[in-house]
Amino acid sequence: MRRGDSIVSKIDWLTILLFFLIVMLGWLNIYAAVYDENAAQNIFSMSLNSGRQLIFIGVIIVLIIVMLVVDFKFYDTFAFAIYGLIVFLLIFILLFGREVAGSKSWFEIGAFRFQPSEFAKFATCLAVAKFIGGTSGFRMDQLKNQITLFAMIGLPAVLIILQGDTGTALVYSVFILVFFREGMAPTLLILGVSAAVIFILTLLVENHWYLYGGIGLIAGAVILFGRRSTKRIILVVGGALTIMLVIISVDYVVSNILKPHQQNRVKAFINPDADPLGYGWNVTQSKIAIGSGGAVGKGFLKGTQTKFDFVPEQSTDFIFCTIAEEHGWLGSFVIIGLFVTLLLRLIFIAERQKWRLARVYGYSVACILFFHFAVNIGMTIGLFPVIGIPLPMFSYGGSSLIGFTVLIFILIKLDAHRGQVLVH
Questions:
Q1: Handedness of CA 93, 97, 100, 104 (dihedral sign)
Q2: Contact 299, 307 (CB under 8 A)
């Protein structure tokens, strides 16, 4: 291992600039989301989410300095230990955690609360990167490696589901993209995407016989016009029957496994107009707020939908409504552009790594950020069900902000040492 040039000169300052632009614009919009012109409160008031978010911003600045000072080999050496600690906390919280909004995901010590599931993301990224990058002769096509990796991402996901936070657990599905990048056959990726499409179609199509008929026609065409061998026919028929069983199981899962509030989210996704004053309220009001902003918006602190609290959770899950209403399509485009630029930069950073651990970690970070960004905005405009995940670095919340900060700045620290090639 050789020492590189000055670490300061190796730090990716463009990524840091994009990060803080998003954080500070988020802080301004958190204030706009809770602004009350009749109350004598300013953006720094500790009684507002904006004031409390400013404290969290101060915390992450200190945290960033510490993370950049710590030896980068720390993240390699203690990757599994950090993962183990977070898994322990996820188990511990099932016994002693506090339930908030239907999820038993919080530790509360006096006025201090934190959510371990937000920290489980970077811990899992580190553990996955350590296993892939630190295993001599690692091959993604080996079954034992695939089983180990899916167990590593499945354990925290299952524990988070047991807490009642299905939305956060779904984030772990994006690791399949990382595995695909590292050499996994596309079969599992195709199966995963197909399963998601089938699930959504099952929800949207009321008469399932149409789906059964379509599957039967496709299977018949494949058998009729393809190479007809006994093995191939068995595989096609077996696949078609499996898909039909999945369709049958969707109704059971929605009706018997999902909790009432989760069932309402599914109903709102299928048809929010069916009950606009009930389970469809959030999405309906979100669309109204976004559409009312027009091209350039109503102006900062001028949003009427925001001002009169028509959209619940507007400083957290639905903060994109504030952007669209007060700054219009133009402001929305700027925010989306910042996120897309950050995502592209993270992929660029990941791809230039010589150390496999750093590359895998970089892609894990990019995939998690993409999931949060796409799903959060998608659920505010009705493209995805409301699953309660924040817009990264933008939504109000200390655990979320700290979690994403650690996620990104570990990568920045590893990237700053990209000239130092480690041989395992």
A1: positive
A2: no
Q: Are 174 and 368 contacting, i.e. CB atoms less than 8 angstroms apart?
A: yes
- The CB density around residue 275, as the number of other CB atoms within 10 Å, is 14
| In 253-318, alpha helices (H) | 260-270, 281-292, 304-307
Indicate the domain borders of the chain.
7-181+272-416
Q: How many angstroms separate the CA atoms of 209 and 43, rounded? A: 56
CA distance 139 to 9: 34
* 295's tokens: 């091209």
H helices within 293-388, ranges in order? 304-307, 319-351, 356-380
pLDDT over 80 (residue 196): no
Per-residue model confidence as pLDDT tens digits over 265-290: 777 777 766 666 676 778 888 888 89
Separation of first and last alpha carbons in the chain: 11
Residue 422, pLDDT above cutoff 60: no
List the beta bridge partners of residue 112: 109
In this model, does residue 323 exceed pLDDT 90? Answer: yes
Tokens of 154: 């499945």
Would you list the DSSP string of 181-222?
Answer: HTT--THHHHHHHHHHHHHHHHHH-S-HHHHHHHHHHHHHHH
Q: What is the mean pLDDT of the chain?
A: 87
Q: What percent of the chain has pLDDT above 90? A: 49
The Cα–Cα gap between 19 and 39 comes to 31
Token pair of 379, please?
Answer: 């659920």
Copy the structure tokens of residue 132: 């892939």
At residue 328 the predicted structure's pLDDT band, cuts being 50, 70 and 90, is very high
CA nearest to 170, candidates 157, 179, 159, 155: 157
Q: Cβ atoms within 10 A of the Cβ of 253, count? A: 13
Listed in sequence order, the residues at least 6 apart from 137 whose beta carbon sits closer than 8 Å to its beta carbon are none
Chain centroid to Cα 409, Å, comes to 17
Confidence band for 333, pLDDT divided at 50, 70 and 90: very high
Query: What are the tens digits of pLDDT across the range 228-245?
Result: 778 778 878 887 888 888
- For 31, counting Cβ atoms within 10 Å of its Cβ (0-12 exposed, 13-18 middle, 19+ buried), the class is buried
CB-CB contact of 320 with 377 (8 Å) = yes
Measured at the CA of 16, the angle between CA 11 and CA 18, to 5 degrees, comes to 140
Separation CA 138–CA 146 (nearest Å): 11
Is 380 within 8 Å of 320 (Cβ atoms)?
Answer: yes
Q: How many C-beta atoms lie closer than 10 Å to residue 306's C-beta?
A: 25
Q: Show the tokens assigned to 298.
A: 């109503």
